[in-house]
Amino acid sequence: MIFRNVIPGLAAAITLVSLTPTVANAQTEQTWFHDLPSAQRVAKEKNLPLLVHFSAKWCIPCQKMEGSVLNQRVVKGFFGKQLIACKIDGDVYPELLTRYGIETYPTDLVLDPRGKELQRNQGDLNIVDYVEFVQAVIPKPAPETKPQTLIAKKPKLGLGLDGYCPVTLKRSRKWTKGKPKFKANYKGIDYQFQSQKILDSFNSAPAEFAPKLLGCDPVVLTESHRAIPGFTKYGAFFDEKLFLFSSAENRTRFKKNPLEFTRTRHVLKADDIIRTAIQPKDSSSS
Description:
CATH superfamily of the largest domain: Glutaredoxin
Order of helices and strands: EHHEHHEHEEEHHEEHHHEEHH
Number of strands: 10
Largest sheet: 4 strands, mixed
Shape: elongated
Structural class: alpha+beta
Strand order of the largest sheet: 3-2-5-6
CATH topology of the largest domain: Glutaredoxin
Number of domains: 2
Distance between the termini: 30 Å
CATH class of the largest domain: Alpha Beta
Low-confidence stretches: 1-29, 150-156, 276-286
């Protein structure tokens, strides 16, 4: 993921020029637009989602995606039929970076025909993940028969820290189980505590005691932009903050150079966490 640097005085006013009919018609021949107004007009006319890819020529991950992902037949096969696609060079159209809140390269947005944002991804993706990202917003054909009405349930996250008390862990570096009757929810994750007094301490400053990154492995998050839960077996404190890791190897790498994996600020929600099927049974302090 590349963070853009905006240098005052270099942002020039850009006049958007509409595509000629020849270029616009080429969209049905599996090509990218390079002009947002024209792409938006076609998306509205065809009532299709609009995929907008923001990049820059100096961005190495962007150039990697250009050859291995963006121009692959499986990606371009969606164009003109299931969605409209447009590439934007942030150095050419800096005003669009401000309009859509683009802070990193590459960034992909999917907008509905009216311009409402449906989905966003920051960072480079491989071909498989990019296709999944695109397919997630493609309108599904209406079923021939009326399906049975179902109530969707969110998958449950496991009990935070496997039930160990986060306050006791920070204060004494001891893995001590909390009690179910002393429970609090923080950012969608339940934690248990040893007493009401300890629970009150947590509620007064939950961010001080809860694992950083919602307990996700900072090494995996930094290198692959995936929110993979860490295990209590592989915990470590850095700067008085608790981090969890998915393997002993990742914990060792973090300890050697923690700033490499903490200098980027990540904002996660519980729904971002990718659930895992296997977890170590025992737990130990770092």
